[in-house]
């Protein structure tokens, strides 16, 4: 499989960029220190207050000290805010996806292996989760949660709680197919426990479809996080996230185009890279799809 | 005086932006303006909110509002001049500003001759009395709270639908005379008489809550069509003439108002000025950074802007009943630490906000007296702050700051972050406590739920020190049930007595001097940290003439502009 993936140029490019973004997120404090900046310090002297607080100088105030310029209205270093923003954008998306996969497999396999009534019950729950409009409910949920809860963790949990329906449905479908296979039936006949069948016989068969689906979920969750932050219910100030930066940039797009471009471009690049990775995985793992022309 | 905060008003009330106020500059375009030859054309008004209600009983305006004042003439009205002259009231339906007697507890007005409703019926004193009475009806909520507080024996009046007997303390001995008997001396009565509740309402045409579908006009225009929150079209009222109204020029023949637009869209349309937008103005969309970046660069846009100041202060409010803010040293230390430059920038830069060290905004009419008891310089004095904190025995404390979860009223995350960063320099850790904007004043306005430190904003119902200081510092105005604005929960009998003494003054200049002195005195206690005062910058279309910010509200007055 790895050999197949290596030949897939889209996958390789996506993996490199995605890996780089994860690396940036992890090393954000180091990178900011390297630039000699942090993401909270205001630099009022770098702003033109009479003109609404746009950064003085061309290109959003790019200088030797501020590599990507400063934020309009506050003068905070944009480079530091962008790399710290990666922590939230990438971190929340990864954590939410992991949680969704966990919930999805648990519910999906239980429904698939359980009896008629358990299946019917759990399937309705899954239908319900699938039917819920994520953004709307997440906005209301996040608005009522007390302030002192750790925000990024909360974001990941809310996104996951509202978004595990897809993984559950796929897990259930795959489990229903797998349980009719001879080797699963054999294990059941030989008296293996429910838990053992799920773990030893079903889970390995789920890996490929779930991995592919999860890779697609990551960029989707990133969009949801950016959307929630854009709507003002994401992370709390002064913590930066790309969605929140895009939101505050909407009023500046003419006065300081770079301020819109940078978080927008980063978000776009990261999303694209994760989608490329997901597509590569799908081609490599799902033989039925390899024949389909792209 | 209890309820008003203009920002809220502009969101809830208003038919007209109720923003606007102090110093302003006239633009060059009205050099040769002649109100006698200005008539004609269709004016477009592009607004974000407003026109939610059109009933004069339900509007909460400053000086009668912008659009409402085209339909409703009141006993007095704002003087409609730029600068300081504009901070004074002027007679409208009445012949003068009113005659006080009994130590400013009784106010007598006489109506001028030749005034008619849009159907040609003459306006009588009884119509004005009826207009005020119906504003007490629970079916028509939304007006300013002063009437119930000031008029003698009216505290429990339920409006003419339930109690047709009316309010005994408003007397109409004949068709041309109306007398108000107040519970206490109120020298500011001529300012209150600019409110739309003082507009005449013919009892025979009153349909209760449905009246606002077509309110009967006494002003230069009447309603042709009205769809709440969306559109309003005004056409000329034939029974009004400049002969009986010197203050309104009423130049356009027709006025078309569209509401529900995005602020950025409005300003972009005004900049571009395509087609009918060349004849457009806005009364509630202050320019954004997009336009500010183009202003002051000598571009053509510089000639199409009004700059005014609505008397309003954004400040940090301490709850002095909560530790550690019960300790004056802590409040002083934070006053030294504040960085007003970053707050100004957070609000949109020096064009739309100015730093304030006084609670009263810098308008002479309010009694402004400069003081800076805890000098923080432009960007804060963290060293001094640390030293005072050490004296208080509280180095590196952690405090909570409450603020609104969006920036629509200028006390949201942007300003909160700036305050957080400034206090950090003094070793103070600020935990941010965002509260939903819709419930913010419910939480902060109830002493039981009020946080220790909260961002707040306060604006004047009219250009005078009273409505600015009384709700904030009068100890008898602490309302434990909710709707409290005395966030410091400060109650000093000496200050309360001084407030009563100033209220009895009928000479605005004498009152102003004492309001200013009172503000400077209270300022020493560091009950609040004043942050900024408001400045208003509005764009208008290419063909719009005689647009200037009036001194009362800081925005252009539609009753005076022309598009001919």
From TrEMBL, chain A:
PROSITE patterns recorded: ABC_TM1
Entry keywords, A to Z: Cell membrane, Membrane, Transmembrane, Transmembrane helix, Transport
SUPFAM superfamilies per record: MetI-like (SSF161098)
GO biological process: transmembrane transport
Top-level taxon: Bacteria
Membrane topology label: Multi-pass membrane protein
Cellular-component GO terms for this entry: plasma membrane
Location in the cell: Cell membrane
Primary localization class, coarse: membrane
Transmembrane segments: 12-35, 88-113, 125-146, 152-171, 202-223, 258-278
Domain ABC transmembrane type-1, residue spans: 86-278
Family recorded in the similarity comment: Belongs to the binding-protein-dependent transport system permease family.
Name of the protein: Peptide ABC transporter permease
Organism listed in the record: Actinoplanes siamensis
TrEMBL record, chain B:
One GO term describing the cellular component: periplasmic space
One Pfam family here: SBP_bac_5
UniProt superkingdom: Bacteria
Region (Disordered): 79-98
PROSITE patterns linked: PROKAR_LIPOPROTEIN (PS51257)
Residue ranges occupied by any Solute-binding protein family domain in the UniProt entry: 88-476
Family annotation (InterPro entries): Peptide/Ni-bd (IPR030678), SBP_5 (IPR039424), SBP_5_dom (IPR000914)
GO-annotated molecular function: peptide transmembrane transporter activity
GO terms under biological process: peptide transport
Protein name: ABC transporter substrate-binding protein
Organism name: Actinoplanes siamensis
